[in-house]
Amino acid sequence: MATIKLNDGNEMPQVGFGCWKVDKDTCADQIFNAIEVGYRLFDGAQDYGNEKEVGEGINRALNEGIVARDELFVVSKLWNTNHAPEHVEEAFNQVLSDYKLDYLDLFLIHFPVALKYVPPSEKYPAGLTGTEDDKLRYEDVPILDTWRAMEALVKKGKVKSIGISNFTGALIDDLLRGAKIKPAVLQIEHHPYLQQKKLVEWVQSKGIAITAYSSFGPQSFLELDNKGAQSVPGLFDHKDIVSIAKKHDKTPAQVLLRWATQRGIAVIPKSNKTERLVQNLTINDFTLTDDDLAAIAKLDMGLRFNDPWDWDKIPLFV
Ligand code: NAD
């Protein structure tokens, strides 16, 4: 399993399993199966609402001796309603207790959007709003204050690495000026329709590893009735991706993942089919040519499917 050496010395597997929208009913079995197949990184989040089930799958594999804890790389993300420094550790402890683990490998700030605290006794996970009237309520927490509380988790030995997700260049630049511990990882939406070339180049030059999410582009957003996803051809059927796949005797999914890993980016595809799990894990045994890369570069249209602008006109990426 290829790994990426993080700027704090920890090693992160380059291919992992994404836990978003994994059904609670089958989640523990899927995680267990993924571990049996060879997955070692699990990308969860408070907001996914399935951390107990993810933890159940992990612990079953640990108890059966299929894997040891130090061979796994378990990730979670701080939700928007927990940005106030006094709530960061509380949220983290909830994650640990849901996973039934005693440390995490990586904890990310899910979005640089601070929303009003929702006590877990009222609603957990809080969801997008956590409010009865479904309106977003904001909280004035500068990102560096949240980051300080993340750093405190590292100092207490509760998490090995900390990072960020859905951050833009200017915000990362500002964070780096105040951070005592650099973010180890930036997780971003990244696929041929949204390549973010300058962000990737600059962030990698700062020694921060990139994890791509939604590597298959519109695929994951079709079931959410996302208008942008419905407006473009699926990447699995895109003629350029299909022809590159045929040339290498690989599937379009493998080409999309390899396109990222070949440029040093980690990927976290999600699938509930064993055959696809294996396929998504076996992607580093071929090399895309310069022509392949040039053809994929042409597909960029800056099309983002996961945008807080759609929640409440939040100007994160404007
Ligand atoms: P994805 O791009 O991994 O696509 C998943 C879809 O592709 C599913 O419909 C699946 O059935 C299908 N699929 C998977 N493997 C396939 C294969 N080999 N052939 C054909 N179809 C295949 O989707 P995603 O869930 O959006 O992203 C992956 C992970 O990234 C998430 O589970 C989550 O962990 C993370 N994520 C993070 C954020 C964030 O804000 N940080 C946002 C979205 C997703």
UniProtKB/TrEMBL annotation:
<dbReference type="InterPro" id="IPR036812">
    <property type="entry name" value="NAD(P)_OxRdtase_dom_sf"/>
</dbReference>
<keyword id="KW-0119">Carbohydrate metabolism</keyword>
<dbReference type="InterPro" id="IPR023210">
    <property type="entry name" value="NADP_OxRdtase_dom"/>
</dbReference>
<dbReference type="GO" id="GO:0016616">
    <property type="term" value="F:oxidoreductase activity, acting on the CH-OH group of donors, NAD or NADP as acceptor"/>
</dbReference>
<dbReference type="InterPro" id="IPR020471">
    <property type="entry name" value="AKR"/>
</dbReference>
<feature type="site" description="Lowers pKa of active site Tyr">
    <location>
        <position position="77"/>
    </location>
</feature>
<protein>
    <submittedName>
        <fullName>NADPH-dependent D-xylose reductase II,III</fullName>
    </submittedName>
</protein>
<comment type="similarity">
    <text>Belongs to the aldo/keto reductase family.</text>
</comment>
<keyword id="KW-0560">Oxidoreductase</keyword>
<feature type="domain" description="NADP-dependent oxidoreductase">
    <location>
        <begin position="17"/>
        <end position="299"/>
    </location>
</feature>
<dbReference type="InterPro" id="IPR018170">
    <property type="entry name" value="Aldo/ket_reductase_CS"/>
</dbReference>
<feature type="binding site">
    <location>
        <position position="110"/>
    </location>
    <ligand>
        <name>substrate</name>
    </ligand>
</feature>
<dbReference type="Pfam" id="PF00248">
    <property type="entry name" value="Aldo_ket_red"/>
</dbReference>
<feature type="active site" description="Proton donor">
    <location>
        <position position="48"/>
    </location>
</feature>
